[in-house]
């Protein structure tokens, strides 16, 4: 359906309605909401087929027969969105339709409950765009810890603060040698849209990770959501980079070396970091270690050294 659009066409120009409609019940300051708006923009009018597992994203749709989405949405179980998307992609290919098939899932359905079907679809290189909006908790069920929750954060199931580091889902996906994987920040619009469009224009399995603030779970102010994730990038905690074919790493935004002051701008505005539970010096060492790894990968597998 190369001419399919979210809204239609007028005077030969594709008109793209926002994927997320006005009047939805999402929380103020929700990073997922802005991600959905920009996703619709990056699709340049083409109608996606969207699969959403149990998460805030499926609650967003609202009660039947109305919906806050302007595209067809299939609700899946927590663990099976990549499997459902695989079926939709196969049917679209059989019918010679080019509608992009997109999984839109939180970190619980990606890092934890859904990782088996995620890995299986990635290993088979299914023609799917998988987008994880990572709010670092099970936000829809009261704010329990996930393996995406950072060390030192307290949740309803880690009241003393989480003692384990956040899982590196990007390294896991790159190990599958998928065509494209990238991290995205809602504070960096141009980088965000470019990566969405890069994923849109490729075939095979593509994985995008959005750092998605959740004021309710992060115990932060809704009006500071974009600024918060900007600080996460600026202090080096959330690196912005992309990986082509599991081998070629490219850093797209390079911050200054981390400092206690830069880290404090991020963590001090979130009451989820309990006083005394966060070791800033340890966190800076972890950030530096992460960047040493990325720099090695980016040098060794630069864009000019593509495997032929």
What does this entry look like structurally?
The chain is an alpha/beta fold. It has one domain (8-305): 3-Layer(aba) Sandwich (Rossmann fold). Helices cover 34% and strands 16% of the residues. It has eleven helices and ten strands. The chain has helices at residues 31-42, 56-59, 81-94, 108-112, 115-123, 169-174, 189-201, 215-218, 225-234, 260-267, 280-300, and strands spanning 8-10, 13-15, 49-52, 73-75, 101-106, 129-134, 180-185, 206-211, 240-244, 248-253. The strands form two sheets. An eight-stranded mixed sheet has the order 4-3-5-6-8-7-9-10, sandwiched between helices. A two-stranded antiparallel sheet has the order 1-2. A hairpin with a 2-residue loop joins β1 (8-10) and β2 (13-15). α3 runs parallel beside α5 and α9 (225-234) runs antiparallel to α10 (260-267). The longest helix has 21 residues, at 280-300. It is globular and about 55 Å long.
